[in-house]
Amino acid sequence: MLLEIQNLHKIYNNGTHALKGISFGVNEGEFLVVIGLSGSGKSTLLRCINRLIEPTSGTVRFLGKDITHIKGEELRKIKAQIGMVFQQFNLIKRRSVLSNVLNGKLGSLSTFDTILEKYSDEVYKEAYKCLETVGISEKAKVRADSLSGGQQQRVAIARSLMQSPKLLLADEPVASLDPATSNSVMQYFEKVNKEFGTTVICNLHFLSLVRRYATRVIALKAGEIIYQGAPSDINETWFRTIYGEEAEEVEIR
Amino acid sequence: MILDPELELHPQKLIANRKRKADKFNLYKAIFLDIFFVFYFILVVQRAIYYKFILNLSDLPFSWNEILSIFIGSVVIGTFWALSKTSLSCKLLGIAKDNKTTKWTVEIFGWSLFNITFIAGWIVTKISIVGLFSSEGIAGAERLFGAMFTPQFRIFDDALFAMIETIYIALIATLISIPPTLVLSFFTARNLMKDNKISFAVYYVLRIILNFIRSIEPLIWAIIFSVWVGIGPFAGMIALLVHTIASNAKLYSEAIEGIEQGPVEAISATGANKIQVVWHGVVPQIVLPFLSFTIYRWDINVRMATIIGLVGGGGIGTMLMQYQGLARWHEVGLIIIMIAFVVWIMDYVSAKIREAIY
User: Fold this and answer.
1) How many CB atoms lie within 10 A of CB A175?
2) Is the dihedral of CA B20, B25, B30, B35 positive or negative?
3) In this complex, do A94 and B284 lie within 8 Å of one another by their Cβ atoms?
4) Which residue segments constitute the domains of chain A, with CATH numbers given?
5) Chain B interface residues facing chain A, Cβ-Cβ under 8 Å?
6) Whose CB among A95, A177, B22, B90 lies 3.0–4.6 Å from A181's, allowing a Cys bridge?
């Protein structure tokens, strides 16, 4: 099992109880999608996995190793193996696409070399390869903020691919994109999942995307798992349980 | 494994516990604040309004015993008031009871505090409408302004040289300030330093020192350094340098605190260490604001350098002081026109440069 989460709790300092005893496991090669309303704890869950947020109690096991309380160098080694893509892309706007992608390699290069931006030819080649994977290598020299939203998200995927990640976390990666672009960005996640066998955990809002890309679904409501299973099994009743009585399914294609 | 014994409690209890602790701490703060408010109120009413205005005493009677007894009185009143949870500071800290008494004390006491402060201020400032419009006064002002509008161009060469000296003092102070300011700003940015106790202590101590340095005006630094290194441009430059470092470190560190957290989060998610996160996530976001602050500071320093000259910091200010002492108002007029002209140009140029880089 690649990732194993047991009885995970997160209480923020302001008293919000965001995760209330989450437990689940993820096998290698899965495309796991986490759904749920805004505020249901999806982002917190993802950030607890790569320890951008410190869980309050419970355990996170990655490749059989308890990583809940590791620190310093050991934690950075783990972080370097877990890629992450964000809703707001989180690129360095004023830097070029290429240097944004190179940033993905920071965890495995020496501090001194990265400060002087001395990267070896192999690293450059790798960066271009990652850009080619997401089909955007011709934009390598352009400033990141001159790209469209969908292109920026593809650069962000390329940045995480530089880590050669075992696990790729995606926090609502298409929530600020239009429907057509959403689908094309999701296809790159699928490509990464199928071609490199990278396990993907992705937060999503649109059920049509969930049905198309997910191999398994977890639904969160108020910090608890209320559904776990195949995407095709989410029927009308489940949909209303997850999203509330007034919800209506919106089709995006 | 649970690291914090607090976590063995039920989460709801944990939250209630934290709230109780916060309320208790706020009550202590409220007691201190209320004692201060009452003490201030009594002192101001007694000394500024009663002694100075109503009795019109020129020498205020002073005895430590009297002040001590007022203080003890305030301690008693303030403590009971805060403990009853109907006082002004309880309201300010959000722990007051929600009833009529609170509403009345807050409104009446709050307004009285504001009003006596204003009245005392008026009395202390010795505001005099008569003085502003007396005929002798106006005649003097006319003489002065008249001379200034007919400047004496005989000293133009000297004034020009002094002006250039002033601009260079400001420029050198600004340039030398950049490296130390850069280093300091990272250590005084809360978001970079809050993670562990040692770095937070460093942050805290540095902030206090910088606040202290900044709270002393460049004019006073110039007085200190003109004694230390002797009167002249060097004293003025050091005075500006010290103040520039302290103020820009604050501006820079606030720019660091205001950056987008997203990219920083993304960089640290790649497994980068602290130095790499700062260099690749923080620095690219702050280069332009830093440049802009620095250029603006040069502009401010040119203005300050003229003032610093008045107390022996060299440049045009020193020259102004000399002619003013000799009451040669036509020369003073020329110098003032030159200062105004240069300040205006600097202001315009620095605004244009800042616009261009953004």
Assistant:
1) 15
2) positive
3) yes
4) 3-243 (3.40.50.300)
5) 1-3, 7, 11-12, 14-15, 18-19, 260, 262-263, 265-273, 275-276, 279-281, 284-285, 287-288
6) A177
Query: What distance lies between CA B50 and its chain's CA centroid?
Result: 32
**Sequence ranges of the domains in chain B:** 5-127, 147-357
Nearest Cα neighbor of A233 from A248, A253, A244, A219 is A219
Nearest to A106 among B19, B280, B284 (CB): B280
Structure tokens at A74: 């050991």
CA distance B250 to B357: 21
Contacts of B233 (CB under 8 A, 6+ apart): B165, B168, B169, B313, B314, B315
Count of helices and strands (H, E) across chain B: 16, 0
Using a CB-CB cut-off of 8 Å, the residues of chain A touching B260 are 90
Q: Does A111 touch chain B (CB under 8 A)?
A: yes
- Rounded distance between C-alpha atoms, residue B143 and residue A241, angstroms: 86
> Rounded CA gap, A128 and A166, in Å?
20
Cross-chain CB nearest to A57 (options B7, B262, B272): B7
Does the beta-carbon distance from A84 to B14 stay under 8 Å?
no
Q: Contact B279/A114, CB-based, under 8 Å? A: yes
pLDDT of A199 over the 70 cut: yes
ipTM for the predicted complex: 0.89
Q: Which residue of B has its CA nearest to A95?
A: B284
Q: How far is CA B144 from CA B150, B278, B329, in A?
A: 10, 56, 7
Least Cα distance to A95 among A144, A135, A133 occurs for A144
Residues in B touching A90 (Cβ below 8 Å): 260, 262-263, 265-266
Of B265, B275, B276, the CB nearest to A90: B265
Tokens representing residue B184 in the block: 């300091």
Give the C-alpha separation, A62 to A80, whole Å: 12
Q: Which residues of A touch B10 (CB under 8 A)?
A: none
Mean pLDDT by 10 residues, chain B (358 residues): 54 76 88 93 87 79 87 92 87 83 87 92 82 82 84 88 91 94 91 86 94 92 90 90 94 91 92 91 90 89 88 85 88 90 89 80
Show Cβ contacts of residue A72 under 8 Å, excluding neighbours closer than 6 positions. none
Residue with tokens 């300030």: B177
**DSSP H/E element including B98:** none
DSSP A150-164: HHHHHHHHHHHHTT-
pLDDT of amino acid B318: 87
Residues 6+ apart with CB under 8 A from A79: A50, A51, A107, B268, B269, B270, B271
Q: Kindly state the tokens that stand for B333.
A: 């007029």
CA B132 to chain centre: 30
Residue B139: CB atoms within 10 A of its CB come to 10
Closest residue of chain B to A48, computed from CA coordinates: B269
